[in-house]
Structure formats: structure tokens, C-alpha cells
Amino acid sequence: MAEHQIGTREEWQAARDELAKLEAEHAEQNEEIKKKRLELPWVRVEKKYEFDTEDGKKTLAELFDGRSQLLAYNIMFGPDYTIGACPGCTSLGDGLDGTLVHLSHRDVTLICFSRAPIERLTAYKRRMGWQFPYVSTYNSDFAFDFGLALTENQAQQIPEIQEMIGNPPDWLQEWSGQVGAALKDGMRENPSWIAFARENGAVYHTYTVSAPDPFVSPYFSFLLERTPKAQPAEPRTWRKDEYPAKSSPSGE
To answer: What total number of domains does the chain contain?
Structure first.
């Protein structure tokens, strides 16, 4: 039997009221964080970048598609991944298409980046049924310049990465098999959200956030935070077309 407290309606309400105070404090703090985020200085992008898209080569400015704001998620799908993108990043991507119309009507273009060649991104996008623009940073310095990927030398200088490569937990070894890349190559990709602004003909970098920040998570993970049962501590995940078969619902 699951280990959880059983109580009366009055006990539940008292506990819920206490939790509501914490949630209100968190919401107030988040308002301050949002304000600070908007106050970050914009940094002009001086370097010229060229990207591979389904519609051919494009510059960074052209990725805005006529809007003044560009929001992009960097999916872990490096050139060395022989099977496919990170399942966790893939799950995040699954939740993006429904937001496209809402963001575009608010002057925001939403895309995803990966370092694998465009042909592989397009095939993977087709497999997953995605509609958002999927852009390749292959053969470009862009991902390295903006912290979306590490060079081999950079990865070797980070003790935490070297420790995980040298003594990987079971879930990370499983992940390596899911993407089809050795950990020394697979862990060089950095799952991140990155934002740019375009004003008076210039493009500016405005914001980046990377895992393990909770914002870099599939949308369904936020829904799971409101369900009655805690999720497993180990971050195992699957692509939507690869979930293991379940014998029956576990509601008894």
C-alpha cells in the first residue's frame, strides 16, 4: 500500500492553507525574477552565422521570420548521435507545437536548434510529427559561442562531466544507448532555452537558461508536480513511440 497520510477534510484544508502560503511566497519571488530577467542587458550579435533549415540556408536575423523576438530550444542531438535526439529533449519538443500560434501572435518566433545535420533533423521531426521549425547548427560555431555545446577540450575540463562519464549511473548508460552515442560525445550537448531580439536591423542575445533548471523540462513534468504520487528520482524517459508496454493500470 502506498505510504501517504490519510486525514479528515478539516485536516486537509488546514494543510492546504499552509501550503498556499508557501506557494504565494514562491509566486511573489517569481515576479521579482521575471522583472530581473527583463532587465538583463542585451548583447549585440556581431558575428555572422549561417544555419541549415528545411528551406535552405538562413542567417540568424532570417530565423526571426519577420518578428522581433526569437525563442529557441536547443535539443540534445549532436552529430555523433546515431539513433536520435535525447528522449527528454524529445518529450519537451512534443509539447511545443500547440504554442506556435499563440507565440506568433505575440511577436515571438519559436524554433529548435540541434547540431546534427539538417537531413537527420528533418527525418526525426517527421518521425515525431513536429511542426515547429527545426534548425541545424552543424558546421557552425554558433552552439559553442552561445554555450549550447561544449568542445571536446571544454568537456574534459569540467570535473562533473568527467565524473559522470567515468562512473555513470544506470539511467545515464541507458540514455547513451537511446541516443546511440558514447557519453564523452553525448554529454557535450547542452539542453537550453535561448532568446534573441531584433531591433533597428540588429540582433541581440537576451537570455539563456540551461538544465538542470526546472524550466528546461517537458511540459508534462509540471503537470506531474500536481498529481498525488511522487515520480521516480532517477530521470528515465522514453520517446513517445518507444514506451514499454504496460500490463494494466496500477490504481488498486
So the answer is: 1
Quote the percentage of the chain above a pLDDT of 90.
Answer: 89
Query: What are the b/e assignments for 156-186, b being 16+ CB within 10 Å?
Result: eeeeebeeebeeeeeebeebbebbebebbbb
Total-model pTM: 0.92
Domain assignment of residue 203, given as a range: 43-219
**What is the spatial distance between Cα 93 and Cα 220, in angstroms, rounded to a whole number?**
11
Mean pLDDT of 125-129: 98
Closest by CA to 82, choosing from 185, 164, 174, 152, is 185
Q: What residues contact 142, with CB distance under 8 A and at least 6 apart?
A: 49, 51, 60, 113, 148
Which residues are paired to 194 by β-bridges? 72, 208
pLDDT for the residue 73: 98
